Amino acid sequence: MKQMKTTPLRAPLKSWDFYATFLLRQEKELTKNTDIKILKEFKEKYHWSFDIEKALNETTFEAIVLTNSDQVIQWVNKGFSNMTGYPANFSKGKQPKFLQGEKSSKASLKNIRENIKREFHFKERVINYRKNGQEYVCDIEIFPLKNKEGKVLHLLALEKEVVLPFNTLKKS
């Protein structure tokens, strides 16, 4: 049997960098489009008067949490599982407060409760905890999702982990 000559693959390193960047961008776009599609199905089912696509395209986020009006999780995206370490099936049926812990600000949590009660769209920063116990800072933007009669049926939380400079972290 004749042995094949192997030739190493050669290409400028920079071209692989460009291609990898392209693939990552493409993956993010596909993931966002999948999230939009799923949320549009919820919108059709519950008749929300809310522009899902606009909100997701105008907001920078990693994780999506959809709760009912009693703040019980109905659906989370893959970004939520990646950010928190909790699988979707564990999170569904729980309230998002399972992510809170010792360093979660009481003032931030109170602000969240009050704005939800008032049915306001708002942003808040909280300290949450991953499945492995590691804390992380999270910016949350919450949208009340109303039906055509104006009744809040669900809450949509778009979340992004915030990486703070080392010198801004408070020591306990």
Mean pLDDT rating = 89
Q: Cα distance, first to last residue?
A: 70 Å
What is the molecular shape?
Answer: globular
Structural classification = alpha+beta
DSSP helix count?
5
String of helices and strands: HHEEHHHEEE
**Biggest beta sheet summary:** 5 strands, antiparallel
Unreliable stretches, pLDDT < 50, 5 or more residues?
A: none
Count every beta strand, where a strand is a DSSP E run of 2 or more residues.
Answer: 5
Q: What portion of residues belong to β-strands?
A: 15-25%
In spatial order, strands of the major sheet run 2-1-5-4-3
Helical amount among residues, as a percent range? 25-40%
* Rg measurement, Å: 20 Å
Secondary structure blueprint with pairings:
Layout: H1 13-46, H2 52-58, E1 63-68, E2 73-76, H3 78-84, H4 88-91, H5 106-117, E3 122-129, E4 135-146, E5 152-162
Antiparallel strand pairs: 1-2, 1-5, 3-4, 4-5
Tell me about this structure.
The protein has 172 residues and is of the alpha+beta class. Helices cover 37% and strands 24% of the residues. The protein has helices at residues 13-46, 52-58, 78-84, 88-91, 106-117, and strands at 63-68, 73-76, 122-129, 135-146, 152-162. It has a 5-stranded antiparallel β-sheet with strand order 2-1-5-4-3. The longest helix is centred in the first third of the chain and has 34 residues, at 13-46. The protein is globular and about 70 Å long. The mean pLDDT is 89.
